[in-house]
Amino acid sequence: MPTLRTALPLLLSLHVALPALAQPPPEPWEPGIRHLQLSPPVTGEVPELRITPGLALTVEFDSPVRPLRQGGVELEERGRFRRVSLDEEGHVLTLVLAPGELPDKPPRLTVHFADGAVPASAAFHLVAHPAPAQTHVQVYRQPRSAEVCCAQADAEREKALRCQVELERTRAEASTRGPAGLIGLRSQGLLDTEEGVRTQWLDIHTLSRAPVNALRPSWATAFRSAAPPRQEGAGRVRVAVLLRLEGPDAQAWKAEGAQLASRGGAGRHVTVWQSSANEPGVTEVMVETELTKEEARDRFTLKLWDASGTRTVTLGGVTFP
């Protein structure tokens, strides 16, 4: 097991070398509601619906779909899905891809509408990824009213503004070139005078592990520090988890993204750093995010994935000091 003397420099280097950090996955994989207007049949376009194994995806239609018993829903590789159901009115389709299922080719979903209007059916490709994707998709077959479009445009503008604020904050952090080490942490507002950087060894034997983990975690350490002071961030802390992963191809496995999910809460993408200097068969990965002090008291599940999305590492029961 490592000592704090060896682990703390990694935390320090993480904060003073922000430009080298991997960025979260692009917006299409972010959880939330997606609005989809069907294209005219002549275009031949097949839109993608993104689905996460083990999580329900609900697709809501503005026109009723024929019942399942009347062939209203056609789904390729049906056996990979734990649940395929349609509500009594035919407006809400629920899909649950079985945990661990990541089809090589996106299954095709085809729905047939019940009213006989055009288009009579709609097709989609279901793209699976271990990162939490949209959980609700609203599909519009008929043109939307101006009021609906304006309301959705306002929501999108608000979301874009939040993203811009977060981007500017990230850029400001990345452009900071203060001193290194503990002085650097203090200059960035990450080191307070009461708690400093708190560390907690996580007993790897008490953490739940997915049976299909690509690499074997040999130890894990959790960190907590102050968060950079800002007007809207009162009562927030920075938390991080440092993992040592082992396996025959540890050097070849590269963490493309990560997600931290609390019990019963939505997951959030986190910043990922992976060490480039490791002994054979070993790699070290560190993830970091910002939480409220209240959120930091919860238990979390940490999931990491590579570029393919098929080789993941999942640990449950993660806590912070």
Percentage of residues in helical conformation: 10-25%
CATH homologous superfamily caption of the largest domain: Immunoglobulins
CATH architecture of the largest domain: Sandwich
- Provide the spatial order of strands within the biggest beta sheet: 1-9-3-6-5
Order of helices and strands: HEEEEEEEEEHHEEEEEEEEEE
Task: Explain how this protein is built.
Helices cover 16% and strands 36% of the residues. It is an alpha+beta fold. It has 2 domains: 4-26 and 180-318, Immunoglobulin-like; 39-140, Immunoglobulin-like (Sandwich). It has a 5-stranded mixed β-sheet, with no helix packed on it. Helix 1 crosses helix 3. Residues 3-28 have low confidence and may be disordered.
Helices and strands, with pairings:
Blueprint: H1 4-16, E1 33-37, E2 48-51, E3 56-61, E4 73-75, E5 81-86, E6 92-97, E7 108-112, E8 121-128, E9 136-140, H2 146-175, H3 181-187, E10 198-202, E11 208-209, E12 216-226, E13 236-246, E14 257-262, E15 267-269, E16 271-274, E17 282-292, E18 300-305, E19 312-318
Parallel strand pairs: 1-9, 2-8, 3-9
Antiparallel strand pairs: 3-6, 4-7, 5-6, 7-8, 10-12, 11-19, 12-13, 13-17, 14-15, 14-18, 16-17, 18-19
Helix pairs in contact: 1-3
